[in-house]
């Protein structure tokens, strides 16, 4: 069986080529991020990938910077899951109904924030800016600021890999 590439089959390939030219891969230059996103006091968020800029249906991505020795207000992101990747600096996260839990993350570390979890980002360094990449599970940004009275001394929570638990722990 032979295919005649001179008729509609060839123009069909051309249609795909044109569509993917404008609806395919997008590169968003780092100096062209959008600062017009829901904000939380103490942080500077910028959108790189979202529905409006790139047509993203299920993801939002951008950057967040926090000045040295600064912290954000308590907030959550509704039904969205969030991932923070620490690029530079040291992040201290507080979370819980009274921000009673805490953990720290360094460059190269990933932080996962489940839906509706009240949290606060803190720059744990007194002299270095905290720079992170942020990814959320929806093309729209959601940030709900909360009025929380935090506990004085949060409890430190060390991450335990659920697959490689300490063998001395009994289930």
TrEMBL record:
Organism superkingdom: Bacteria
Gene3D superfamilies, sorted: Jelly Rolls
Annotated ranges, domain Cupin type-2: 63-132
Pfam families: Cupin_2
Ranges for region Disordered: 1-39
Biased composition (Basic and acidic residues): 1-25
Identification of the protein by name: Uncharacterized protein, RmlC-like cupin domain
Source organism (scientific name): Bradyrhizobium lablabi
